[in-house]
C-alpha cells in the first residue's frame, strides 16, 4: 500500500481519543473524521478572529483573509480558479438553492435528466422543476446491478435537454460513474452537467478541469473538514443564473448562490482540507501535483483495503453485494442486502467494535429499483484511506460471527 496507516492516522486526533479506542469506523460515507490541520484552523479562527470578517481592523482583516485562503486552496485542490467555489451550510441546501436558481433560468418546455441512483438531495431538488413546466426525464439504473449505463442515458438525450444531474458514484452502489463521457455528451448538446460528488470526494478530490462537469457538489465534513457544503460552479454559468441572495449583493459572485449565510469559521477551516491532502501526498512520495498524487495514493490504498472484504462478501450466499465486486471500479462504500434489516445487523456489529450503519441512506428510489424495501434497507460498510488492514480483518471476523 502506498500510504503508511500509522503515519496517516497520526494526522487525525480521533485516533488518539480514549473514548474511541477499540472501535473501527465503517460509516465514513456518513461523515469522516476531521484532520488536525482543519481543527487547528478552526480553533485559531474561534480564538483569534471570531469577529465580522472583511472589516477595517486587524482581527477582521485576518478573518477575511483566512476565508479567502479557503476559497483559493479548495480551488487549487480541484484544479479550478477560486471564482468556481461556493460554500453553503450543506450539500443538500446547496442543491436546493441551485435547483431553485435553475427554475428561473430554464424555460417551459426545456427538459432535464435525473437518475434514480442518487441520494434524494441531488434528485428531488431537480424533480421539483416539473411544477414549473420543465420536462423531467429519468436515466434509470439496471434493476439487477444498480449500474447507470451510457446506452440508457443516450435513450433520453436530445436537443431539448438543458441539464443532466448525476452522482459521481452512488452512496449504495459505489460504482464510479463515467462522468467524463457524460460531459462529452452534454457539451455536444450545449447542456449543463451537475455532478453530486458527495460519495466520491472523500476518496480523492477530482480534477474538475479533466472531469468536465459544470457543477460539482460535495460535503466538506466527508472530506476530513467541517460541516459545510462545497459547490463548484463554472463562473460563466453562475453569472447567468438568477441571484438567490439579497438584491444588493447581485454583483458579488460568492453571495448569489449561497443565501443562507455560511459559517465564517468553518469556511476558514476548510483550507485545512488542502493542507491535509498535501500531507498525504508527502507520505505517498514521488513528484508531481500534490493533489493528484494524494488522489492516486488514496484510491490505491482503498483498492488494496477493499479487495479482501469484497472477495469475502461476494463469496457468501446469504447476502447480496450491491454494485461491482471489483474494487478498481468502485469506491469503498460497500452495501449488502441481507434477510435481516441493515440497521439490525449494524447494531450487532457494534458489539464487536465495528461502527457501521443500516438503512436506505436517502436513496429511496434506488432501493425500489433494486427490488429492496427501503424500510428494510441495506447494511453499509464504508471506509476511506485511513482505515487499517487490521480493521478490515476485524470487520470480516465480526461479519462471520453475526451474519
UniProtKB/TrEMBL annotation:
<dbReference type="InterPro" id="IPR015424">
    <property type="entry name" value="PyrdxlP-dep_Trfase"/>
</dbReference>
<dbReference type="InterPro" id="IPR000192">
    <property type="entry name" value="Aminotrans_V_dom"/>
</dbReference>
<protein>
    <submittedName>
        <fullName>NifS</fullName>
    </submittedName>
</protein>
<dbReference type="InterPro" id="IPR015422">
    <property type="entry name" value="PyrdxlP-dep_Trfase_small"/>
</dbReference>
<dbReference type="InterPro" id="IPR015421">
    <property type="entry name" value="PyrdxlP-dep_Trfase_major"/>
</dbReference>
<keyword id="KW-0663">Pyridoxal phosphate</keyword>
<dbReference type="Pfam" id="PF00266">
    <property type="entry name" value="Aminotran_5"/>
</dbReference>
<feature type="domain" description="Aminotransferase class V">
    <location>
        <begin position="25"/>
        <end position="395"/>
    </location>
</feature>
Amino acid at each position: 500500500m502506498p500510504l503508511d496507516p500509522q503515519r496517516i492516522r497520526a494526522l487525525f486526533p480521533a485516533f488518539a481519543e480514549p473514548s474511541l479506542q477499540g472501535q473501527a469506523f465503517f460509516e465514513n460515507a456518513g461523515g469522516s473524521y476531521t484532520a488536525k490541520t482543519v481543527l487547528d484552523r478552526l480553533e485559531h479562527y474561534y480564538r483569534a478572529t471570531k469577529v465580522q470578517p472583511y472589516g477595517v481592523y486587524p482581527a477582521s482583516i485576518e478573518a477575511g483573509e483566512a476565508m479567502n485562503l479557503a476559497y483559493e486552496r479548495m480551488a487549487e485542490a480541484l484544479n479550478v480558479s477560486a471564482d468556481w467555489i461556493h460554500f453553503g451550510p450543506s450539500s443538500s441546501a446547496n442543491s436546493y438553492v441551485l435547483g431553485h436558481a435553475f427554475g428561473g433560468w430554464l424555460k417551459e418546455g426545456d427538459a432535464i435528466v435525473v437518475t434514480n441512483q442518487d441520494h434524494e438531495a441531488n434528485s428531488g431538488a431537480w424533480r421539483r422543476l416539473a411544477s414549473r413546466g420543465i420536462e423531467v426525464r429519468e436515466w434509470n439504473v439496471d434493476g439487477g446491478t444498480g449500474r447507470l449505463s451510457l446506452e440508457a442515458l443516450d435513450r433520453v438525450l436530445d436537443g431539448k435537454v438543458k441539464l443532466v444531474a448525476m452522482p459521481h458514484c452512488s452512496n449504495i452502489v459505489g460504482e464510479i460513474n463515467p462522468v467524463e463521457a457524460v460531459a462529452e455528451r452534454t457539451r455536444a448538446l450545449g447542456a449543463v452537467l451537475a455532478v453530486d460528488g458527495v460519495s466520491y470526494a472523500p476518496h480523492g478530490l477530482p480534477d474538475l478541469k479533466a472531469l468536465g462537469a459544470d457543477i460539482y457538489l460535495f460535503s466538506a465534513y466527508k472530506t476530513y473538514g467541517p460541516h459545510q457544503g462545497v459547490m463548484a460552479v463554472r463562473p460563466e454559468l453562475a453569472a447567468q443564473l438568477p441571484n438567490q441572495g439579497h438584491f444588493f449583493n447581485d454583483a458579488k459572485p460568492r453571495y448569489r448562490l449561497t443565501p443562507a449565510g455560511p459559517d465564517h469559521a468553518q469556511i476558514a477551516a476548510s483550507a485545512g482540507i488542502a493542507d491535509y491532502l498535501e500531507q498525504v501526498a508527502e507520505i505517498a512520495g514521488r513528484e508531481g501535483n500534490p493533489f493528484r498524487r494524494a488522489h492516486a495514493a488514496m484510491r490505491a490504498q482503498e483498492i488494496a483495503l477493499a479487495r479482501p472484504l469484497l472477495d469475502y462478501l461476494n463469496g457468501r450466499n446469504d447476502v447480496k453485494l450491491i454494485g461491482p465486486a471489483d474494487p478498481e471500479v468502485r469506491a469503498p462504500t460497500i452495501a449488502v442486502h441481507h434477510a435481516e434489516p441493515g440497521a439490525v445487523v449494524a447494531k450487532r456489529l457494534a458489539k464487536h467494535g465495528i461502527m457501521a450503519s443500516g438503512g436506505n441512506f436517502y436513496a429511496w428510489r434506488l432501493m425500489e429499483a433494486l427490488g429492496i424495501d427501503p424500510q428494510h434497507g441495506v447494511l453499509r460498510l464504508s471506509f476511506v484511506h485511513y482505515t487499517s488492514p487490521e480493521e478490515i480483518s476485524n470487520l470480516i471476523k465480526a461479519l462471520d460471527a453475526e451474519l
